[in-house]
Amino acid sequence: MTSTETTPSTAGGGTDRRRWFALAIVMTAAFMDLVDVTIVNIAIPSIQREAGASFSEIQWITAGYALAFAAGLITGGRLGDIYGRKRVFLIGIGGFTVASALCGLAVNPEMLVASRFLQGAMAALMVPQVLSIVHATFPAHERGKVFGLFGAVVGLGAVSGPLLGALLTEWNLFGWEWRSIFLINLPVGVAGLILGSRFITESKAPRALKLDLVGVALVTLGLLMLLYPLIRGRELGWPLWGYVSMAGALVVLAALVAYERRKSARDGSPLVELSLFRVKSFAAGIAVQTVFGVALGVFFLVWTLYMQFGLGWSPLKAGLTGVPFSIAVSVAAGMSVQQLVPRFGRKVLQAGALVMAAGVLLYLWGSGHYGLGIAPWQMALPLVVMGVGMGLIVAPLTDAILSEVPREHSGSASGLLNTVQQMGNALGLGLVSVVFFGTIGDHLRPDQVGPAFADAFRNSLGWVAAVMGVIFLLMFALPKRPAQHVEGEQAATEPNEPALVP
Fold it and tell me: Which residues, 6 or more positions from 71, have their beta carbon under 8 angstroms from its beta carbon?
């Protein structure tokens, strides 16, 4: 059987500069997705005012993307393994661009919600290919540098969304109001489609795989049964059927595991490659990534609501406040993989969890001390501390999870990685209903809104700090030292033999 997998000798050689163009293209796509996850939050008041969206519809505009994204990520990763990562990436970025146009042209909130679902589904095709293309294109000794860049992009994208959304909303280009936050994706998407078709090298799994349709149905059903009640629970008063659905989701996911075991033994083409969980670094990293997603899901939403509704700040003022955080994440992420992790190993990630928790607690103190009169510069120090902590985690965590994954399963592993992060974000959104909105009364006088939102924000920060403590403890399951580059190169030349960490 002829392998179509890209090898380091063909894609990662020193004379092949095309791979760096390909990296820039897929990183841009990843950045575009990350921005779209957060850019909507800052434009919520504008959408409510101009589109007449209800609070329930606002929830679906923000959560519908995450729901479709999480439900389709594993399938998207496997489709790249089967049909070619370049091909599926181009389909994804093309569909994402079309969906962005539909969001920007939406004539009512219902069309906007539907378009966000489509946007999330297309992102589920596009995003898993990013790390898969990197994993298949770059040899092991270069991946540390590449994952460092990826961590910086993650940090930049997470906070650039609110800033970009604030600028576009304030500028009100061509009278588009909030619509410009979606239409800005069109030129980026078209450029990515054209350049990607030219510079990205095709790769797929070396063995002929088949799409596991039963696995697709089970994983989609299980995730929907888990996430739908979390997203709508508070709005509907946490009905009994929601708890039944979430419990049933565990049964469906257990059935998925049993079916995937039989599928793997029968024809070797499961949707979820369960053998990945025998790689200790992958299994432990997935657990950390899930809980980390919960913390981020809680913080970014309540932070935006606190600044705009609690403090009454404009979108631009709220967006600019996040600049110190963004810079700190990017700088720390770049340093962590290249300089710190090779020397100190797992301790860098654990230090990141503690530093981020310290920043959250510092923010909690500052919010209480300065009250509603708090200024952006008084938030700068806690945001920088939080950003440094996050930067120390995001880049080396990705490297730790994927560094020992067999090359032919890189698409499946990437899909799992992104899926659990989105599941964590969705769980975080569910917790927002409890830890933030659960402390705010239903009928507030205008003079009660600010204090109520500030109190709810501080309550949420306490939960985020606690979650970071849990992450610190989970990180003890990670390998003390990352896989050495020499070992990585050996693994790359023997892709069918995953390196197990003792």
Answer: 124, 219, 220, 223, 224, 227
* CA 347/CA 481 separation, integer angstroms: 9
Secondary structure of 287-307 in the HEC alphabet?
A: HHHHHHHHHHHHHHHHHHHHH
What is the tens place of the pLDDT at every residue in 168-204? 877 777 777 788 888 888 998 999 899 888 888 888 7
Judged by DSSP in three states, 239 sits in coil
Is the pTM here over 0.85, yes or no?
no
Question: Per-residue pLDDT tens for 95-105?
Answer: 999 999 999 99
Other CB atoms closer than 10 Å to residue 97's CB: what's the count? 22
Cα 275 from chain centroid (whole Å): 24
Phi, psi of 481 (to 5 degrees): -125, 145
CA pair distance 410, 279, nearest whole angstrom: 13
Tokens of 123: 């992102």
- The predicted pLDDT at position 408 comes to 67
Residue range 412-440, pLDDT digits in tens? 677 677 778 777 877 787 677 678 877 78
Residue type, 310: G
- Per-residue model confidence (pLDDT) at position 483: 59
Q: Helices marked H in 200-279 — which ranges?
A: 213-232, 240-267
Instruction: Tell me how far the alpha carbon of residue 57 is from its chain's centroid.
Output: 22
CA-CA distance, 39 to 497, in Å (whole number)?
Answer: 41
pLDDT tens-place string over residues 282-295? 888 888 888 998 88
Using CA atoms, how far apart are residues 356 and 195, in angstroms rounded to an integer? 37
Per the CB < 8 A criterion, the answer to whether 431 and 297 are in contact is: yes
CB atoms within 10 A of CB 494: 12
Tell me whether residue 213 is exposed, middle or buried, using C-beta atoms within 10 angstroms of its C-beta: 0 to 12, 13 to 18, 19 or more: exposed
